[in-house]
Amino acid sequence: MVQDIRQLLITTITEKKENYYRLAYSYVKNKDDALDIIQESIKKALISVDKINDSQSINSWFYKIIVHTALDFLRKHKKVTLADVDTLEFFSQGHEDDYQNIDLQKAIDDLPVKYKSIIILRYFEDLKLEEIAIILGENINTIKTRLYKALELLRIKMD
C-alpha cells in the first residue's frame, strides 16, 4: 500500500512539476531558491508518504508541503527577495519592458503572506477554495474572507 502511494506521489510530482515550481517561485522569486524548496518538499513528502490516508489528496497534500517549506524559507531568510541571473541580464542589456502586469505583480508581492498565498493558489494555480483551505489548514469561510480582503487590498493598491 505505501509503495503504491509512493509511486503515485512520484508520478504526481513528475506530471505537475511545472506547477509546483511555479508555486515555489511565486514565493521566493529566485530560480535556485525555488528549486531548493521543491527539492526539500520532495524529501519531506517521501519521508512522510506513509501519513497519506487518501490517495486522491496527494496533490493538495504536496501543495501544502511546498507552501509550508516556502514560508519556512522566507522566515529563515528574512523575506529578502533577490533578482535571479536572467532578470539581471535582461535589465543590464537595456531591453525595454514588454509590460507583464508589473504593477499587479508588485501589488501581490506587497500583500501580507496570508493574503498572498490565497491569491497565488486561487488565481495562478487555479485551485478551488476547498483545496486552498486544506492546503493552508484553515476553515473555508476564513479562506473566503481572506480572498475578499486580498482582492480589496489589490484593488486599492492598483487604483
From TrEMBL:
Gene3D superfamilies, per the entry: 1.10.1740.10, Winged helix-like DNA-binding domain superfamily/Winged helix DNA-binding domain
Presence of the UniProt keyword DNA-binding in the record: yes
Family of the protein in this entry: Belongs to the sigma-70 factor family. ECF subfamily.
Residue ranges occupied by any RNA polymerase sigma factor 70 region 4 type domain in the UniProt entry: 103-154
Name of this chain's protein: RNA polymerase sigma factor
SUPFAM superfamilies in UniProt: Sigma2 domain of RNA polymerase sigma factors, Sigma3 and sigma4 domains of RNA polymerase sigma factors
Entry keywords, A to Z: DNA-binding, Sigma factor, Transcription, Transcription regulation
Pfam families reported in the protein's UniProt record: Sigma70_r2, Sigma70_r4_2
Keyword Transmembrane helix tagged: no
NCBIfam families, per the entry: sigma70-ECF
UniProt xrefs under PROSITE patterns: SIGMA70_ECF
All copies of domain RNA polymerase sigma-70 region, residue ranges: 20-79
Superkingdom: Bacteria
